[in-house]
Amino acid sequence: MKIRDIILVLTAGLGLALILVAIVLLRGELSKLETAERLQASNAVRQELLVASTALARERTKTFIQLTTSNQDAFDADIAQMRADADEALNRAGTALRSGEALLARAGESHARIVANGRRLTALRARIDRAIGVGDEGARRAAAAAWLTEASALIDDLQASRLDLLNDNRPTDAVLAAEANIRAYVDILHEAIAFNEAIGVALLTQGNGAPSDTLVTVERTVGRMSLAWQMIENEVDTSLSARVRAAVASARAHYRLDYDPLLLGLVDAQTSTVLGAVVANWEATSDQMLDALRALQDTLIASSSERLELLVRDARRSAIMFFLIAGAGAVAAVLILLVVRRRVIEPIGRISGAMVRLADNDLSTPVPRARRLDEVGVMTNALRTFKANAIQRQRTQRELHAVHQNLQRTYDQLRHDLEAAATIQLAMLPAPAVVNGISHNGLYSPSSLVAGDTYNVIAQPEGGVGFFQIDVAGHGAAAALVSVAGQHTLSQAILTRRREEPIEEILAQVNREWPEDLPYFTTILGEIDTAAPVGRIVQAGHPSPLLIRSSGEVVPLGGSGFPVGMVAQADYESIEFAFRTGDRLLIYSDGVVETENPRGAFYSEERLHDFVAGHARSVTPDLLAFLENSLRMWRGESELTDDVSVLIVERTDLRSNHVIH
Amino acid sequence: MLSTETIDGVLIVRVEERRLDASKAPLFKEHVSAALGGDVNRLVLDLGQVEFIDSSGLGVIVSVLKRLGPSGSLAIASANSAVRRLFSLTRMDRVFILYDTPQSAIENLRA
């Protein structure tokens, strides 16, 4: 997974989580708002139902009292007004239920019941309208009793509807719950007092003739009222508003001070003679009590409505707030995504792309210019530096390559020159041959391409064979050039030698004339007399050559002598030795005896002497081959550190002898 | 490569190499030239540690002698048998005097 994907997923996840949390909270708030609105609707409907049941209770009680106490053959205008009020209240309650159907589960059902109850009420009114016209006392009382029962049933039904609505949507808020309960108890109280008013009038006007169950009913109602007050007082505590508490206390005081004493006196007042005044007082007190209760209801309703209004407003505000938070979260998530993409993901993508191409050595890759001071800017700058360094490195490499090629060319040229020089130097060495009865053969191994060693064998114009071996101090090109000079000088000296001039004189002269700033050289300069069985050598710092007699005897010749070019005044002397047919003279450079084995030990003069003695019977080419092999074996893997050369001259034929014999 | 010491106006050059051959000779020459400096003209070359000298090494020693000039003198001390053999082969034992110890060389040069 790429970093950009990780960042995108994390950012998007974070944004989504934020939005989800906000949505969950918003849903909670919306649900709270819906609950509050439902409570509000329920409250409004219950308020209308309360108004309707109150109006109906009033109509019922007053209608009953008029039926019971009046001799008129029709109801007076008060009753007509009460009926109109009740109808209007019922209509309003019906309308409220209908509009609350969307929110309240049982609103439809309650509405149907109200409509049915309206029809029943109309039928009941028609029945008592007929009964009041009859004028018969007994029939009127019977109709009044029936009215009271039927109308009370309707009121109970309205109360039941209200309680259903309340039970369906019981507020969780403690104050609202308490107020709803108080309202229900006050309603019960109101109905009980209204009912009692009717019953009380019946009790007073019938005197002792009243049925005993009426009294029982009154007493039961009184019990209900006490219970209702008890329940109301249980609900009242400090959480309720002062206004509500004051209204409850006021109604309670009214009940205790005015209504309750009158109620207690009602039973005793049955025998009283001033009946008209008592009834009027009862009615008035009851109505005042009812008014007080209605005032209490109004206060409660107003308090609940205000509180619900507050709750709805709070819920609405919270919902709007959380909606805004969810929106802000979404906007923030999108913004974060955009910023991260623009400030992190895209620059990193560009940098990584450029890095990959640079790593592939594509130095033409453009690296974006850093306009920022953050990590991305640092990375971009580092990448630009890297690219600049890479370009510089590439240029340096190219230059180095060019220098290297130049060096290689120069080296090739030099090597070519050296190889040419080596070829020339090799060509200057005499090939194995027989000159005036003297055969010669050689071994030649430069330590590099060219050598400071050289030798030559020359037939002298005056007879005899001259030869020499030269070893210039040092080795390599300088020594090789000097060796060429030395070879030329000695060769010319031999070729231009005067007849009587001894070879030691030749060497002394070369030594005198040898330039001081050139390296010195050691040499064996010699001659073989072709007319006599003798040879002569001059030794100049060179190792003593080995004379190999035809008998196999090996004798070193000479001992010492100044090298050429070291001491200008040096004297040289020659050594003469018998050199018969089959005798050989082996001349070698110090590179032979100074050949080292891998442990650093020299081949040594002693070992050379013994080796030559051991192979003294071998023919010259074999002897040289064996010696070369022996030296190579001795050396092993190590390099030659000095030039190695060997020259063997051998008398194969003594001409003068032939001439003599 | 070498260490020097001056005793009674005689410069003693102690060669601290086992071999004095073509690979060492040029550098050795430089060092000795530096050690010679101004008016030194008596020099003892202590070859006690040297096992082998080749023709290049010999060339350097002769060049040191030439540098000391006709009034100068160069003595060789503590040369081993191989070195002595080279000196005798090239007759350098007739040009330099060989001593067994640096002390004897110094005494003779001083005298």
TrEMBL record, chain A:
A Pfam family the protein falls into: HAMP
Gene3D superfamilies linked to this entry: 6.10.340.10, PPM-type phosphatase domain
PROSITE patterns named in the record: HAMP (PS50885)
Keywords: Hydrolase, Membrane, Transmembrane, Transmembrane helix
Transmembrane segments: 6-26, 319-340
Gene Ontology CC entries for this record: membrane
Keyword Transmembrane in annotation: yes
Name of protein: SpoIIE family protein phosphatase
TrEMBL record, chain B:
Listed SUPFAM superfamilies: SpoIIaa-like (SSF52091)
Origin superkingdom: Bacteria
GO molecular function terms listed in the Swiss-Prot or TrEMBL record: anti-sigma factor antagonist activity
Start and end residues of each STAS domain: 20-109
PANTHER family per record: ANTI-SIGMA FACTOR ANTAGONIST TM_1081-RELATED, ANTI-SIGMA FACTOR ANTAGONIST TM_1081-RELATED-RELATED
Family: Belongs to the anti-sigma-factor antagonist family.
Protein known as: Anti-sigma factor antagonist
UniProt source species: Devosia aurantiaca
